[in-house]
Write a structure and sequence with these properties.
mainly alpha, about 25% helix
Length: about 50
């Protein structure tokens, strides 16, 4: 991804993670990166396997 989308990598968001409270703790890194980058919006997909 980094090779195809210049400046897509957000660094330095890790210290923000522990201060975030979300329904799914596994989403905290996404919100922390958005805060660090002062993002106006975010988009990501959730892939779930419901076949089992």
């Amino acid at each position: 991804m980094n090779a195809n989308v210049p400046d897509c990598l957000i660094e330095g968001y890790e210290p923000l993670i522990d201060d975030l409270t979300l329904p799914d703790v596994d989403d905290r890194h996404v919100v922390a990166a958005a805060i660090k980058d002062q993002a106006e919006s975010t988009a990501h997909s959730i892939d779930s396997d419901t076949s089992s």
